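Bench log, entry 3. Co-assembly request; chain sequences pasted below exactly as received.
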Amino acid sequence: MTTPSTESPMTDQSDQPVRILVAKPGLDGHDRGAKVMARAFRDAGFEVIYTGLFQTPEMIANAALQEDVDVVGLSILSGAHMSLFPAIMTALANVGRADALVIAGGTIPAADVTKLKELGVAEIFGPGTRLQDAIEFVRQHTGAMSEAARDAS
Amino acid sequence: MRRRHSAEEEADGVLGGEIGAVARAITAIENDLPAGHHVLNRVFPHTGTAHMIGITGPPGAGKSTLVNELIRSYRAGGAKVAVLAIDPSSPLTGGATLGDRIRMLEWHNEPDVFVRSMASRRFGGGLAQHTLTVAHIFDAAGFDPIFIETVGTGQDEVGIASLAHSTVVVQVPGLGDGVQTLKAGALEIGDIIVVSKGDRPDAQALARDLRRLQTLHDREDSPDDRWNPPIVMTSAIEQTGFDKLSAAIRSHKEWLQQSGTWEVRVRTMLATEISSRVQRDLMRRIQSQSVNQDAAINAVLARQMSPLAAADRLLESLSNR
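Structure output for the full assembly:
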């Protein structure tokens, strides 16, 4: 019986990369932000499942389920976040993935941020966010080692 | 926090075709977690029937689009279809952009279509370390066929042929002249050759070059029951060729079974899976003795030892343990 050796130096966090879905819900053709984030997450060592434009809440939930992602990253610039995000949170719960860390970015007014966080969206990254801030947020909330900690080990 | 499931629960979930259980089992296997081994041990006796179909070819050749069309064809017959779509991991950061699913989104609400993206995690050869092992999970969950889409490949990535019953090699026009079709390597492993993007003007020329090569082959004395890889031209734009392709894949499966080649291939597949695992574990054991490895590298750097002698020494240190 093979049991993976835990003392092997290879069996560290790099064996369990963060898996993150990057999707754009709804009717919104502006995918520059989503692509920039997908690339930034890739460069941070994450495995990014990029499903791109025009995603329905069910598409996002089913992808999160099948791909077994740790994180769902949503980018929205259409202004429809207050109708789409609650539907996405419900869809995730319906497929048994209410545990996924949901983060969002795009043009979301400050007044809506509190409401979305009450729904369970972990963090909203607005325009001007530093890539590193979003990356570190994901690392901290998924238990992945930060770059500094990895370099030190 | 995610609920923890026992190995029994997870194995039952996989055998019952529960999507969440299948998804978690795949992650556990990919990450080489004990939970993955436990689930596999329990479900493995229930595997061995699914048709594993490898799809390989250059980046952007249309592999994912082709798989999407094949899903349609197999779904029409009521099959439960799984796709394992592999994309490359960064050699620098280990990160990956997995972008094959985007071509297959129309099946997103179909419980009998399971698309899983997988990073190669620097395994090489257009594959991931745990490719076939993950496919066993799909098999146990009742998916048949299982498509394994490789990383975009070139001339030499032939590993998929040892991990699938049937291999579809996708070629595209515009990548070179007829000499390319003479070369050894990837073209030889195709049980079925697809000329993708058949709507392009130079597609006919590519198909002709491939066919000429094949007729040359046909003239040689060979047993009557040999499989002659068909060349199928497809076009997603014109929606042509996909019925012919899925028919070709089905006849290949029939031929495998009737000729007794199926059993031969299964043996090769499992042997490859085992030896790839053994190789990986041996490498890890050597790497875990980093003192020895560093000393060997230093000796080679100082030109006191040749690279081959250093390799011998590392292997010896392993057996002396």
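The first helix of chain B runs from residue 7 to 15. Chain B touches chain A through 42 residues (CB under 8 Å).
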